[in-house]
Amino acid sequence: MVKLFLNPVLIILFSVGLHFNLEAFEMDSVDGGKENLTYAAGDEVLSSEQKVVKKVDSTFTVESSLKPNTTTHITFLTQEQAEDIQYFSGSYKETIVFYEEDHIKIYVGLGASEKVDLEKIRCSVGQAIVKAKQLKKEEISLILPEVYFLENSEVVKAVVEAIGLSTYTFDKYKSHADGAFKNVQKVNLVHDRDHSSDISYAQKIISGTCYARDLVNDMAHIVTPAYLADRAKDLVKGKENCEVVIFDEEAIRENNMGLLQAVGQGSLYPPRLIILKYNGDPNSDDIRAVVGKGITFDSGGLHLKPTGYIEDMRIDMAGAAVTMALFKTVVDLELMVNLVCAVPAACNSIGGAAYFPGDIYQSYSGKTVQILNTDAEGRLILADALAYVCEKYAPKELIDVATLTGAVMVALGTDVAGLFSNDDVLAEDLFEVGEETHERLWRMPIYPQHTQAMMGEFADLNNIARGGAAGSITAAAFLQEFVEETSWAHLDIAGVAYRKTPMTGYVPKNATGFGVRLLLKWLERKSCCSGV
């Protein structure tokens, strides 16, 4: 077992503008422009047309100014605000382009004013970025939407989030012709207040979400259990209130985590259990915990997945990616919460050492499990991690995040994740923040008969229910057996973690990062309750 304790580095961002690189999210020195702010009635107001810039590199820039300073201007209008625009009604997501002598005007509709919310703003900004990409515009000016009943601060956060999430690309392995259009490179955000703190906050959300997307999109021979462990070490580097504990295959075996060991034993890439700890509220003993499924590739084991299903199975560690990204974002925002993030990581491979259907293994909790299907492996590694976290840290609330079942997609499709819980209050809290962030959840039941369906003949439990009905519910019932009385929720993100359809709004094709913003908002509420 490897244990690291590292020292703090605090990065405080002060500027009206923000530059960030979606692959290297580290702020650098101020470059270009001058800050020239005056103060009036407690508000910081831009009193000059000089733009304020903070720069990482030339890859991507968000800057603020009083008026557009590019040749492409994007304006967002409600139906009421669009009355004077010819050929444009302002309907939600309606987009029209006007070509003028020296610039282009793009109008994007927000719909009826009384129905505008932050999600419609995010989606409309995403629509605008898509249009700018289609027009091959590297620099655009985006006029901040005016919605009188929404807090200006929240509108700015939503707009900047959508800009960053919409311009995300994963092109690590692509070669580009010199001079070819790659992406929107600069967004000039037009507004008349100092929103530097809001922009900085949104940047951290973007950074975390894109961190998760990068991990999921990358290749399985790169993102191995050991690779995730190394990235976890990076997350605590320089943070004195953070700690990482890594269990290698020997420590997993010595700690009797028989299920995690079994799933990972057939691979050349041995399993790991990663525990990240953040002590953001030293005056409280309350701990929240999040456990993320980290199957770095899922072949199905000896129940081998067929063609058409196996090709994308590097994404089966999306729960782990979300969990690590959540930790990163919580630390970056310095939330006043105590957080434990656990990632059981394994590669479910075939081979001479692979675990067999019919085998029985003992879990960390002591309960035995018979393997009826080697492709129901995610619940096995989660079971050992959940039991360990409950015993070691006694969290006040515990959430696991996993691409667990195809059955949840049959029930809820690809826009809503499944929510299962033994605590009505926790379930309602998560549902509410899901509606707020639009990373939406729908609660499913776990009745005694679902638990009974998982009881074994030769072992305490089977890893699937005989007959196969209610697959996502019986999987959740299995997990519930390892949390005892802990307040717990399970999020099945199999339908929402990865999209095969083209980008719509700010949600891209391929990895989505679903769950980072949701769980962050949930923890922010706990932080507020702690006195922040």
Give your account of this protein's structure:
The chain is an alpha/beta fold and 532 residues long. It is 30% helix and 22% strand. It contains 13 helices and 24 strands. Strands 1, 11, 12, 13, 14, 15, 18, 19, 20 and 22 form a 10-stranded mixed sheet that branches. Strands 2-5-10-9-6-8-7 form a 7-stranded mixed sheet. A 3-stranded mixed sheet has the order 16-17-21, with helices on one face. Helix 2 links the parallel strand 9 and strand 10 (186-190). Helix 2 (152-166) packs parallel to helix 3 (196-217) and helix 3 (196-217) packs antiparallel against helix 7. The radius of gyration is 24 Å and the shape is elongated. 51% of the residues are buried.
Task: Provide key terms for this protein.
532 residues; alpha/beta; ten-stranded mixed sheet; seven-stranded mixed sheet; 13 helices; 24 strands; 22% strand; disordered N terminus
